[in-house]
């Protein structure tokens, strides 16, 4: 598996994956992904070793001014057949590396019943701030709002 930038050519496949991953809610459309890219948000793709197959994607939005940035994980998705192989973890770590470069606190929402994702986020320093009732539609599922404080980049990244 390798990570690189999400391309516009990936958008249709991302929308297909969303329908598979989030059938009871409002999965992101191709238009939503295009909008995210148009806004210049940081999006990554996880691809098979040969680069031919999109295995997952992740996006991070950063707002604010230098020295006062905040980041929000907008999405992380991994195709079902590739889940449990560390792809989601690799995508999250790459997003966090970007946030750390900017010394940005990171926020996200995650379904309260998505135990694997909650466990992953907690293992990476996120804490639950509260619950957003009926956040996901049309299912009405609740979401935890989680946050990770701003971190300084790793020493080798600064020297880099």
TrEMBL record:
User: Which EC number(s) does the record attach to this protein?
Assistant: 2.3.1.266
Q: Which residues form the N-acetyltransferase domain?
A: 1-151
Q: Which organism is it from?
A: Amycolatopsis silviterrae
Q: What name does UniProt use for this protein?
A: Ribosomal protein S18-alanine N-acetyltransferase
One Pfam match: Acetyltransf_1
Q: Name one GO molecular function term.
A: protein-N-terminal-alanine acetyltransferase activity
Q: Listed GO cellular component terms?
A: ribosome
- What CDD domains does its record include? NAT_SF
Q: Which UniProt keywords apply?
A: Acyltransferase, Cytoplasm, Ribonucleoprotein, Ribosomal protein, Transferase
Family, according to the entry, reads as follows: Belongs to the acetyltransferase family. RimI subfamily.
Q: Does the keyword Cytoplasm apply?
A: yes
**Source taxon at top rank:** Bacteria
Q: Does the keyword Ribosomal protein apply?
A: yes
């Amino acid at each position: 598996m390798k990570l690189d930038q999400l391309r516009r050519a990936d958008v249709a496949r991302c929308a297909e994956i969303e329908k598979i991953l989030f059938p009871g809610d409002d999965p992101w459309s191709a238009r939503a992904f295009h909008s995210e890219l148009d806004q210049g948000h940081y999006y990554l793709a996880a691809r098979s070793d040969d680069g031919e197959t999109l295995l997952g994607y992740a996006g991070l939005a950063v707002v604010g001014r230098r020295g006062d940035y905040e980041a929000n994980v907008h999405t992380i998705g991994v195709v079902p057949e590739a889940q449990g192989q560390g792809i989601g973890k690799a995508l999250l770590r790459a997003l966090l590396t970007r946030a750390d470069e900017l010394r940005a606190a990171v926020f996200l929402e995650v379904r309260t019943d998505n135990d694997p994702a909650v466990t992953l986020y907690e293992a990476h320093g996120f804490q639950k701030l509260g619950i957003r009732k009926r956040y996901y539609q049309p299912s009405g599922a609740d979401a935890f709002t989680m946050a990770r404080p701003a971190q300084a980049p790793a020493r080798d990244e600064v020297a880099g």
